[in-house]
Amino acid sequence: MKIIESNRAPNPRRVRIFLAEKSVDIPFEQIDLGKLDHKRPEFCEFNPMKQVPVLILDDGTCIAETVAICRYIEGIKPEPRLFGEGPLEQAKIEMWNRRLEFGLFFRVAQIFRHLHPAMKDMEVPQVSAWAEANRPRVYDMLSLIDGELADREFMAGDRYTIADITALVATDFMKPAKLARPPELVNFARWYDAVSARPSATA
To answer: What is the pLDDT of residue 69?
Structure first.
C-alpha cells in the first residue's frame, strides 16, 4: 500500500494529518505538480481526474479523493473516530466537513488558483474576476465559523474530527492565497491555535 502525492499541495496534507492522528504509517511517493506529472499518462492510469492524492492498495486498487481515502483508513483503523460515532455525530461531522470544503477550502483554492502566477500553467484560463468574487465569501464563512465556535471547542462538536483537519488546511492555505485572518475573530483564533499545536499539524 502506498500514497502518491505532492507534499506541497493542500489535499495531500489533509490525508497526512489524518494518518498522523490515527498513527497509521503508509509510504508516500512524490510527484511534481509543477512539472505537470499529474497529467502524464502513467499517473492518469491511477486517477483519470489528474489529482493527488491517490491511495494504491496492495492488490492494485486505486482510491482517489481525499475524504474517500480517509474513510478507507477509518475503516481499517476506527480509533480515534475522526468521522464520529453514531448516526447523529456522524451526520454533524459530515455536514460541517462539507460546509468547510465548499464554503472555505474551495473558495480559498479558487483565489489561489486564479491569481497566483505559479498556477498559470495549471489553471487555464486564470480568471481574476472569479478569484475576487470568492474573496468576500471566504470572510463571510470565517465569520460564520467564529460564531459557531463560541459554544463548542471544535468544528463539529466536542472532539477533533476530519472537519477540523479540513478547516486547518484551508486556513493555512490562506497564506499563499494572500488572505489575512481577521484578528477580531477571537473564537476562530482560539480554535486555530489549539489545532495548530497538535503534533499532527506538522504532517
So the answer is: 98
Q: Are residues 62 and 149 in the same domain?
A: no
Tell me, what amino acid is at 198? R
Q: For residues 184 and 162, give the distance between their C-alpha atoms in angstroms, rounded to a whole number.
A: 25
Cα separation of 155 and 83, whole Å? 12
- DSSP structure class, residue 122: T
pTM of the model: 0.97
In a domain, 28, yes or no: yes
Cell of 122: 495549471
DSSP code, position 101 = I
Find residue 30's DSSP bridge partners: 5
Collapsed DSSP state (helix, strand, coil) of residue 65: coil
Q: Are residues 71 and 105 in the same domain?
A: no
Domain containing residue 141: CATH number: 1.20.1050.10
With residue 62 as reference, give the H or E element that holds it: strand 62-64
The residue behind cell 492565497 is: 177
d(Cα 80, Cα 78) in Å, to the nearest integer? 6
pLDDT digits (tens, 9 = 90+) for 133-167: 999 999 999 999 999 999 999 999 999 999 999 99
Across the beta sheet with 62-64, what order do the strands follow? Answer: 28-30, 2-5, 54-56, 62-64
Whether 82 is covered by a domain: the verdict is no
Residue numbers of the domain that contains 174: 87-202
Is 102 strand, coil or helix?
helix
